[in-house]
Every structure is written in structure tokens, then in C-alpha cells.
Amino acid sequence: MDIMSTENVCRDFPSGRRKVRVLYDVSLKVEEGSLTVLRGRSGSGKTTLLNIMSGLDDPTSGRVFFADREFSAMAPALRDVIRARQMGFVFQAVALIPTMSAYENVEFMLRIAGKKADRARVLECLDKVGLSKRVEHFPAELSGGEQQRVAIARAMVHRPRVIFADEPTAELDSAMGMSVMKLFRTAVEEGTTVVMTTHDTNIMELADMIYTLEDGRVTDVRRGGEGL
Amino acid sequence: MFKLVLRKMLNNKWMVACLLIGSILAVAMVGSIPMYADSVLEEMIHEDLYAYQEQSEDKNYYPAYAGKYLVRRQFSASAESGAEEIEQTSARIAGYVRQLGLDTLSHTTHLVINSVTLVPDEKSFASVNKMTEFHAFSGLNDNIELLYGRLPSSAVTDGVLEVVISRAAERAMDLIMGDTLTVKGTPLGSAIKAVRVVGVFNYKDNRNGYWYGSTSALDKAFVADYDAMTTYCVEREMCVRRVEWMYALRYAQIDLGNIGAVLGTYSYQITEMTKAGNLTFDIPAYNVLVQYVSRETELNIMLLVLQIPILIMLAFYIYMVSKLIVEFDKNEISVLKSRGCRRGQIFTLYLLQSGVISLIALLIGPFLARAACGVLGSSDGFLSFGGAPIRPAVHLKALLYCLAAAVLGVVTMLVPVVPASRTDIVILKRKKARGSGKPLWKKLYLDFILIAVSCYGIYVYGTRQNSVSAGAGSTPIEPLLYLISSLFTLGVALLMLRFYPYLVNSVFKAGEKRWSPVMYSTLTTVARQKGREQFLVIFLIFTITFGLFSASAARTIDKTMVNNVNYYYGAEYSVRGMWYDLTGGVTSGEPANDSTQGYQPLNMEKYTSVNGLYNATKVFRRYGVKLWVGSTFNITADLIATEPAKIYKTLNMPTDTQRTVTTKELCDALAADDHGTLISRAMANAYGLRVGDTFEYTYGSLMKQKLNVVGIFDYWPQYDPLSANNILMIINYDTLAGLANFRLMPYEIWYSRDKSVSTDEIRASFKELGLTLVWEKDAVAELQQRANDVKFRGTNGALTLGFIVIMVVSVMGFIIYWVLSIKSRVLQFGVLRAMGLTGGKVMRMLIGEQIFLSGFAIDVGIVLGTAVSRLFVPLIQLAYTNPTPPQSVLLLAGDYGRLFICIGLMLGVGLSVIGWLISRINVTAAIKLGEE
User: Fold this and answer.
1) Domain hosting residue A190, numbered range
2) What's the rounded mean pLDDT across residues B456-482?
3) Chain A contacts of B838, Cβ < 8 Å?
4) Is the pLDDT of residue B650 over 60?
């Protein structure tokens, strides 16, 4: 079953007096419980597409569906609620809250999602990302990779249906990047759908579905493992 | 490099603009001190000199002259010659006068021969004194007008010296034109056997000071021709016993530019004349100018002291903004350093930047200082501008002050540059990773140190208060006291800042499981942030504390001044009329304590008919009254007898002056009992008297009288409870006057006053009614004069100006903090929005932070401001010579209200800015910004 899909999505941005089209009639589907990768060079429109799919941005034209509902037509407040409860996010710039410890950053997401504080769940997530011994440390005391792993734990803690990750391994070395991908794989195996953007070809082997974007268009669609 | 500096400044224009505003304010505040001081002091010099004349004026004769320069030389009877000496001294004094550089309005050399015995002709009715004086003045002819007769000849013919006399002398000595008197002996020289009156003169009414003092010496003396006296009484035979050289100098030429030189010259000349040993002098301007210099110093110190908190805040603000700019540039600095840029080069870059900012501040600041002086001068109360504004000139001294402030501004701006210029990219990254650590003030326990220092200062002041008596020349604001109050405020603010995070953290932990995302984020942010918010909190606390303290100090000073004047004066207007004893003799002095002399009653009907005065009340005083209290006798006390029902209406004491009862209750109790008395608390404590007790008293020829204690007072106008003579009792005048053997003696009359009637009109009314006054006291006029006093205006003005500047600086600091706080957290807000937190919740988070930070600062500021006011305002030493009933610290609700309005505006502006910034956050752009 497709948890998400886009239908002829276009996106224009103003550039001075002109408009620049970044996405051209992008239509794709994301299967539930899959690891879907949007790949492409810098400026190909993958981040913009991810933002539209997650409701952070609105398409200029076209539609976005989430769980069989037209997500793009929903009121922003409703989209906020859906994002809070059913989606998780991991960004390239980690952006943990500096005044909260690793534990508190993860627990904070539970509160945003409207759920009760659940210490066991938070510790479970931090354990999954290999940070069970760093729960009381603040972001300034963690390395870049550790911070990214906290962000992943934060994205998973409230059991979202979808995790959106924008270049989550861009600032990590290859070993760390692979480790993050394995975490995503684990989440997928537990039923979470992961949609991520990357331009790193090495990690795509773990993907279920790969969409290639070039100049705002989907130029290739293939399943993971098929030659690129 | 200059282009680079300008480009940097333009890239960061808002922060640079904030820094520039702070620098301009600092230059203006410092420059306003000499500008205000000099413009009012210039007035003060001439006012002081003129006031000397007014106070010294003998109303029945000619006025004293402030520009008098009088030197005297006394010659003994055995002096054989004096001509050469007189000439040399004349030349010397003329030289001294030239050194002063002031114009001479008039000059005279005055020769005096005294102890001349004259024998009138048989036909003459003259009644001359045995010891008659002879005077001669150079330049006399231009300064008298002959009523009749002619001027005396310079020659002595047939041994007769011609003289003229004043109108007063004519009457006093019963002389007429042509009267000839024989000189007994040769006190005027052997050539002069007799004197003949050839003319009667009056003094020309000139104010050039020729007639420099009281001319009463000529009321019973003769005036000869100057040349005649010189020839016959100096050159031929030395008979002159005293020579005076008098110069009337144009004191209006003394101004700020030359006062130092004039005073220095005066000092030198006085020293030389004192060394000579045979000269005495009377130079009133010297003492007036010495006092003026002392007041000038006091005023300058006072203005500087009052501005200390503001200057500290401005320095703090400049440092803070400069630090923010440097932080903003840290990446750039570290990159430059990593590329080989030397520390000196980086320092030079910021030196140039600071220099440009300070230069602009120096160009604009003096003019703003001029405007600030307008506030200082027109302020007749805290945040009140009823006085006339002043428009001082921008002169060199003020520019030098401004320059000093600009230079200090540059230094302050460079302080954060020093550590930053050491930072290369490695150190920067490491610092970012490690965090900033504890602030320096926490590591050094600066909060405890400041509090300890200020508590010690309070203790020292408290003990000093008992030994220092208030004097007329005291500074209203003790410099160190003001500094200590600022240190105390800063110390307590830092202490609150140290412990507040723990308090917030406790609140966080208490409800950790239940907090909403908004509260969760707010509490963790407030409890754990270590950055700029400290500045904001301290700023706000300081602003509110200083605002309340300024308001309280200004109002308490105002009120104390009013109360003190009212206490010293007693009533709004009081007089002591001319009394006539039973023989018809005039009495202007006070009768002796043991006097039994009686007096004729005053025409009270006239005294109650004076225009502008009402509630006329008798106040009789007697000192050294004898008391018998129980078995104790030989007690002496002071007595006041008055009309209790009326005296209450004339008194101007605050209702809460007495400790246990009101003054009205005391007066009512006295009015209700004809034989009642109010006694001072000192008397009650000394002799164990309580309300209901009785004792006896007497004075003069009165029989012993019994009195019932109906009340005990702590304060009564003009009564000093701390003085040695603090045993005072107050009784009914009418009862006293009804006693057998009562002798009517002079009393004062106290009035209430219609303020719409001027003092001149009141005086005219007394004159019209034919009432001669020995003295009069006008409390209303005194209050008006004090309100116009330069120190008083300067105090109110400086406190008001300081408050306004601090509010401006706080608003700017507040906005800077919030703008930077939000801008630095745009990515964080973007991620939170992405995660599903609504814009409204993000806004509520920030409002929550405002409430916890600003709200905390406001609450601490109000409590601390009230505490600092109650602690320090009473320690303010006030420049009064008479005791004041204790004035509680005044904190008016209106001042709190004004402060809240300012704070409210500040918070409102801040919230608007926050709301606007939040509304502009584009989530995707924010996240993208983070990636970059």
C-alpha cells in the first residue's frame, strides 16, 4: 500500500521579477514500510520535493496525498498535527535544542506529538542508536555523528508512520553514514516508512525504492539493488 | 583597511547604530556636567556677590559693596612721620589693584584722626563728643552734594581748619553753619587751633561703592579737605592715626574665565599684606569667591556622582553591544587569523571602527549635551519640568569632557576585542564544542564581593551619621553613598542571577512529567542558558532599581527640604514687631532670661489686618524657666506660650511627625485644659513624666504655677530633640497672660499666608499699617528660593535625566537581546515547526521566556528598588543646619506607575518585534539556512 504519493507536483520560486521552476510535474509513490530514496545532485530539487511531501512547503500545482488523504489541501494547522503525530524528521543540520540533554531532546518529541512522557521508550530509542551511555549529555558535549543519532532517536520515539530525512549522512563519514542507514533499515523493518534524500551512491544499496531527480524532473525510478 | 572597516560597519549596521547611540549618550551625559555647572555657576558668582550685599545691607544707611577692596594702616600716636610710608603703601595697593585686572569704579584714600577734643564757642549750642573724629577723603567733592554752605578750603588760615559735616552730624552735634570750635591740644597738628563748619552735605546716592560701608562714622565727625589734612596732619606733623585705601572694583567682570586668576591674586595679596604685619584688609569678594569655588566643586562632584549609575550602565551597554559585534565577527576573525593575520592587525581594525563611532559621537554628543542641560536646568522635581530651561554654550571645557568620554568609549569597545583577537579557527571550534563555561563573575564570586563591600559601606555610613552634623555647606548627595548603592544593586542582581536558574530548574523538575512542550522548552531554556540573557536581566534590574531609587531620592529630598524649611520657620510667615517698654523705649532685642521688665501691648488689630496674612497667633518664648517635678527642683526648661487652637492652623508639619499622636491632637488637648502643658519627650524621659502628671513652674516675678501634662511631643517647630537644650514645654498663652504678676513681654506672631499675595505686597501692607518689624521670616519665599537653588535643580535634573537615559538604553538593550536571540535560533524554531510545533506555540515559548526572564528581572527590580530606596535614601545627607523631623522614604504610587508604563512599552515593543520576527520565519528557509 502506498502511504504517500505526489501527482504532477510543480514548484516555482520567485527570483527577482521572474519565477524559477524547481520541480516539473513530479509524480511518485511511496510504499508503506519502505525505505525510499530521492537522489540527485545538488540543486536537483530533491529537498524541495521532500519538503512538499512532508507538508513543510506547498506545491505551486499538483497534489500530495498522505494516507489516502489529500495532504496538500489540508489546513496548515491540521498538517501541523499530522506532522507532529505521524511524521518524524531528520535534517542535515541537526539542530538539537542546546539547553536540553540527549534524553530531553528525544522526550521533547513525545510531548510535541501529544504523548505522555515515556522514559522507557526514550531510553529504548537512545539505546537503538547506541547512545545509552550518553543520555545526560548536552549537544555541545556530543560529536556530530552522535548528535545526528540523537536526532534519529528523536525522529523515531513517537512511532511515526513516516520519517523524512534530508541528507542525514552528509556530514558524517562513510562508516557513520552506513551506521545511520542501518538504523533506518531497522525502523523500516519495524513498520516505519523512511523517505530520505541523498547524493551518496554507496548507501543506496539499502534502499527499497530510488527516485532520481535531475533539474526538477524524475528521470529514473528503480528498486534498490538494481544497478545505477 | 579603512574601506574594510566601513564595509564591516555597513554589513552590521543595526548593531553599529545601537553602539553609536550608546556612545553618543555617553558623550552627551559626560559633557552635560561641565556645561550645566558652568552655566549656572556663572550666574552664581554674581548672585553670591550680590547676595553678600543684600545680606550685609544696613537698611538705614548705604549698602555694603561686594567689590570693596579696602586696606587699612594704623599709626601709633608716637609715629613721627608717615608721609613716605603712606605714599609707598598707596603705590603698592594701586599695584595690587591693577594686578587683579578689574575696572575700578571709584577709589578713595581716607585719612582719620580720632580723639580730638573740641570746645565750642560760648554762643554755640553745639554738643560735640569729647572724642571727635576728623576725616578726609580724596575725591570727596564728586561724591557729596552740598545742602548749604561751601566746600572746605585746602588752606589753614589763622589756625582755623575748615570742615563740612553730614546732615546727621548737624543734628547729632547740634551744629550750625559757621560754628567754630577750639581744638584742645594739638591732635590736628600745631598749626591748627580751631575748626569751623563751612558746609553741610548729603551723600550722593551712588552705587559705585565710594561710600563703602556704613557712613554712620560720619554721623558725629568732621570732614576736612583732603589736601589740607595731608599737608598739615601728615607732611608737617604726623597726626593721622589711620589711613584707609578703598577701591570699589567692578565685580561683574569676574566670570568663570578669570575667577581662578582673580582668586589666586587675591590670595597672594592677602598673604603679602598679612606678612607686612601693619596692614589689615577687608575684601569681601575673596571670602565669597572661596565659598563659590567650594560650591562649584560640590556641584561638579554632585552631578558626576548622580551620573555614576548611568555612566556605569552606558559603559556596560557599550561593552555588551561591542561584545555582540565581536561575537558576530568571530568566524571572520578566526579565519583571518588562520590566514596569517596578526593580532595587532585585527586589533587595529576594531580600533578604527571604534574610532569612527567615537568620532561621530563626539560630533553629535556635545549638542545633545546642550539639550540635556535644558532638562537639568528646567527640572523642578523628579520627571517634572516647571523651571526655565537653560541654554548653555558649548565651550572648551565641555568639549574636553566629551573627548574624555569618547576616548573611554573607544577603550570600552575594545575590551572584548582583546580576547577575540587571540582566537583562531581551532580555538573557536574547540570553544563552540566545549561551550562557554561559567561566566567570570560567577567564578570570582563578584556578587558576594559587591554585596559585602556595599554592606560595609552602609555600616560605615550608619556610624558616621551620628557624628556628622548636617551643615549648610554639605553636599546633598554623598558621592560614595551613591556609588555604594549602585554596587549593592549590581551585587544583588548578580546574586539573584546566580540562584534563579536553580529555582527555575526546581520548578522544571517538580512538574517534569506534566509540562506541555511550551513550558518544557521555556523552563529548560531559562534555567540553562548562559549567554546574553544575563545582560538583559541585569539591565532590567538596574533600570527598575535605579528608576525607583532616583524617584524616591528626588521626592524624599524635595519633601525633606520642604519639611525642613517649614520646621525651621514654623509658620508660613512670622514676624517680631517693634515693642515699646513701659517708659516708651524701643526694644528690638530679646529680654534677658531673668528680666521682669514689662512692655506696652502690641496693636493686635493692626497685626491681624495685614494683607495676605491670616490666622495671626501669638508665640511667646522664655528661656531658663524654673521647674519643680516631684521632689526634683532646680530644673530649667524653655517655655513656649501660644494659642493652641490657632497655632495648629499655622503650623506646617506633616501629620505623621509625632510618634504616637498627631500634632492636632496635641493642640486640641492643650486647648481643652487652661492649665495644661505639652512637654518634650526628652523632658518626659528625663523626669519620668507621663500624661496626667503635674509639676510646677515659675519665671520672673510669677508665683509658682501648677501644670498638667496633657501631651508629649517629639517635634515642635524649631525644636531640636538632640540638642543640649531639649527640655521644652508649651502652655496656653491666655492662661499665662491672666496670671497675677504676669509681665507682658515681646512675642512673635505667626501667620498662615495667602500664596497669591507677594512678599513685597505683604511688606508694603505692614508699612502702610505703620508697623515696624524687627524681623520677618517668609517660609514660602525661602521654599521658592531653595527650589531655584542650582544644586537642588541639578539634583532633580540629573536624577530625571539619568532615569530617561537608562530607560532608552534598556529599551535598546532589550530589543537587541530579543532580536539576536531569535535570529540565532531561527534554525531551531524552523526544526520545531517542522516537527509539528505550531507558530502560536513557538510564540508562546518565547513569551514564556520573556515572562520568566523579564518578569523575574522586573519583580527583582521592584523589590530591590524599594529596598535600596529604604536603605540608602535615609542615609543621604541633607544640607540643612536645623533639625528636621524624620522624613520617611517617599515612594509614590505615581512613580511606580510611570515606571510600569515605561517597562510596559518596552515589553510591548519587544513582543511586537518577536511576533514580527516569528511570523517571518520560513520553515524551509530556516532549515536551509541551517544546512548552510
Assistant:
1) 2-95+156-223
2) 60
3) 77, 80
4) yes
